[in-house]
Hints:
Layout: E1 4-14, E2 17-27, E3 34-43
Antiparallel strand pairs: 1-2, 2-3
Amino acid sequence: MNRYRIENIEKVYLNGKLVKTFKAFKLNEEETAYIFCGQFSAPARTANKYLELFIV
């Protein structure tokens, strides 16, 4: 089972640069629910399957 769920992937301009923003949800310790852990950004050309690497 995946540790993170990625939702709301969008391409936007931040400080004049095109980036991809997304919301991340982390699976809790009991593996029963996903908890919101933040909104993050990655370079615009990052493949969606690698967005988990940009969660701090």
